[in-house]
Design brief:
The chain is of the alpha+beta class and 624 residues long. The protein has helices spanning 2-22, 133-136, 155-167, 478-506, 508-532, 536-555, 564-573, 578-596, 604-622; strands at residues 29-32, 36-38, 43-49, 66-83, 86-101, 105-109, 113-116, 119-122, 126-131, 173-179, 183-185, 190-198, 202-209, 216-220, 229-233, 236-250, 254-258, 262-278, 282-295, 299-304, 314-326, 332-333, 338-348, 364-366, 370-378, 381-394, 398-402, 406-411, 416-421, 425-430.
Length: 624
């Protein structure tokens, strides 16, 4: 019995230990040191750990370029907090060094490492700029304050404000744009990163403006969790953070320019003041807000045209893709539905991938393609898949050969076109289970060859004949020729109508133009639902799809060439007023700003109403 209790207690202890291990918070090990230090002044470097380390596992960096005046000094601290029965334990383990720089210039405090529960953790290397006091002008690094002091109108206040302005140099706050590459093919994505650099504390931003990326289709990346990091730029040490990042897909060849981004940053500095003098501790201090407007320079991107000789199955896809084609399984009955599925997967300009062409036998009735997609956009590019479902109904039995589906994309890495093809498929169609008896079905004929039989044979007339006298024969009479002429005219009209219907059905541009308003209305309804749900991101994306899609379908403009300039020229060419053409560009710009800028002030109801009015106005002008 005693052994049983011992084993039970051991099991409970193991379960508690395992629960503690699974519930443990992630360990954080980081280094902290000033970015700028004056030559000849000592400073502190702290390595902070929020857990108790394993004994004798701390490895300090070499501190090359510095003299170690003191350290390592270890401090430990623990605190326990219980709230509503939940216990939170906090551990602080800090190792401190006091360093003295040997010479002015850029130096680096290397990475330190430590172990916790036999797992190793390392800090980041910290660049430090050592400045000569004479060259720095005694500026130092401004302290951070959480409140803003009043700015008086006296001469002393003016002097303090001037001193505050002098605390922030021209290069203390910078905004830079970097692109992953400056020479790309049309449709090949590139990454544009807007990064802010600071050497003084920043407490806010004003007048934020980012470019509209004319000539590009832009997809914003999520940088909400970006943290400030230390970085050396132009020989100076800054704290930097990514403020915006985009994937840009060039839609036209030539030299495209990314316009400057513009931000007004508010720096907060502390200056010595002669007004608020403390009788015990001497002069006071005042906190001032200093505004600095920063811009990125214009960046030019060279966009190369895709090589000539693209196969007919190429529709503008650029990247690397795979194709999976799934024909309908098993035999199908006549007049029953089937689906042919094609999935395009990979990385590239997936949003622009169009459905490959599927050629079905003449006796198959084919319906509109259904598209589903799963697309993920990251800094590495856009990846995922687009799936196309081709529903159809075979109308006659038989054995049918379905031609292979081909999909061609351009691979920028190999600089060539790659064609993917599905295998050839044979589909067996059995007789309709609800149709006539099989003995009445003519074998080997399609529905175009089947003619109704039994219409030219009548039963023998039984009984006495009923003869009557007529005034004259109908043949070659006036009524005969009138009826014959009417039949001929009716035949000509029917023939002309059928020929027009065939031409219209073959003219995909005309079909798209007629369906443009209907598709746009459906998308406006979806946008209205998002507006009701207060889903801003989805609302503005759907409004952009509705407006761009309407212009593409109405004027037969390929997606790859769909730009504000092309649409504006097409509207003017079709007789639309200049104000309406400008209004289209304005709505698109406001949607993009509202979608990508958190400070955008566009109201969803205004955008929705103006989009409807614009489409209605264009429809009324073009249908005249």
């Amino acid at each position: 019995m005693k052994g049983f209790y011992v084993r039970l207690i051991s099991l409970l202890a193991a379960l508690l230990a395992a629960g503690g291990a699974f519930g443990a918070e992630p360990v954080t090990f980081k280094a902290n040191a000033p970015m700028i230090v004056p030559m000849g002044e000592a400073f502190r470097v702290e390595f902070s750990l929020d857990a108790m380390p394993d004994d004798n596992t701390f490895e300090a960096p070499s501190f090359e370029g510095f003299d170690v005046l003191a350290g390592p000094t270890v401090s430990r601290g623990q605190s326990v907090q219980i709230v509503n029965g939940s216990m939170t334990k906090r551990v602080e383990y800090t190792i401190t060094y006091v360093l003295l720089p040997r010479q002015a210039g850029n130096a680096t405090v290397g990475a330190a490492s430590i172990q916790v529960d036999k797992r190793s953790y390392s800090t980041r290397a910290l660049p430090i700029e050592v400045v000569d006091e004479g060259a720095a002008g005694g500026k130092g690094q401004p302290a951070v304050s959480g409140s803003s002091g009043a700015q008086g109108g006296s001469a002393a206040g003016t002097d303090a404000q001037t001193a505050a302005q002098g605390q922030v140099g021209r290069d203390d706050i910078l905004l830079r744009l970097s692109v992953s590459r400056q020479v790309v093919f049309k449709g090949e994505p590139l990454r544009a990163t807007f990064k802010l650099y600071r050497r003084v504390p920043i407490v806010g931003y004003e007048n934020i403006k980012f470019p509209s990326f004319n000539g590009f289709w832009a997809q914003e990346l999520n940088v909400g969790n970006a943290a400030w990091q230390r970085e050396t730029l132009g020989g100076k040490v800054y704290e930097s953070v990514v403020v915006r990042e985009y994937l840009l897909y060039p839609q036209q060849a030539g030299t495209l320019t990314v316009e400057p981004a513009d931000i007004t940053a508010i720096a907060q500095v502390v200056v010595q003041s002669s007004r608020n003098v403390d009788p015990f501790f001497g002069g006071g201090h005042e906190v001032y807000d200093v505004r600095r407007r920063v811009q990125t320079p214009r960046v030019s991107i060279t966009v190369k045209e895709l090589p000539a000789g693209a196969p007919s199955s190429f529709s503008g896809a650029v990247g690397r893709f795979t194709m999976e084609a799934t024909p309908p399984q098993g035999p199908l009955g006549a007049n029953s539905s089937g689906t042919f599925t094609v999935r395009i997967s990979g990385t590239g300009n997936l949003p622009f991938v169009q459905a490959p062409k599927l050629t079905l036998p003449a006796s198959f009735e084919q319906y509109d393609v259904k598209t589903t997609e799963s697309i993920k956009t990251t800094a590495a590019g856009t990846s995922g898949y687009r799936q196309f479902e081709y529903p159809f109904i075979p109308r006659a039995e038989g054995s049918y050969r379905i031609e292979p589906v081909e999909f061609t994309y351009f691979d920028p890495g190999q600089m060539r076109y790659v064609t993917l093809a599905s295998g050839e498929t044979t589909l067996e169609v059995t007789p309709d289970a609800n149709g006539p008896n099989e003995s009445y079905v003519v074998k080997g004929l399609t529905k175009e060859d089947v003619r109704m039989l039994g219409q030219d044979i009548r039963f023998i007339k039984l009984g006495r004949a009923q003869l009557r006298t007529v005034a004259g024969p109908f043949l070659f009479s006036g009524a005969y020729f009138i009826l014959l002429g009417g039949i001929l005219v009716l035949f000509v009209l029917i023939y002309a109508a059928l020929r027009k219907q065939i031409r219209d059905s073959q003219n995909m541009a005309l079909v798209r133009g007629r369906r443009a308003n209907k598709v746009a209305v459906e998308r406006f309804r979806t946008a209205r639902r998002y507006m009701t749900e207060q889903n801003r991101q989805a609302f503005y994306e759907e409004m952009l799809r509705a407006l761009w899609g309407y212009m593409s379908d109405k004027f037969n403009i390929p997606v790859a060439n769909l730009t504000k300039e092309n649409v504006r020229e097409e509207l003017l060419r079709r007789g639309v007023a200049t104000e309406e053409a400008q209004r289209f560009s304005s709505i698109i710009t406001r949607c993009e700003e509202a979608q990508y800028s958190p400070v955008a002030s566009a109201r969803m109801s205004d955008i929705y109403r103006e989009g409807l009015d614009l489409v209605s106005s264009v429809e009324s002008v073009i249908k005249r």
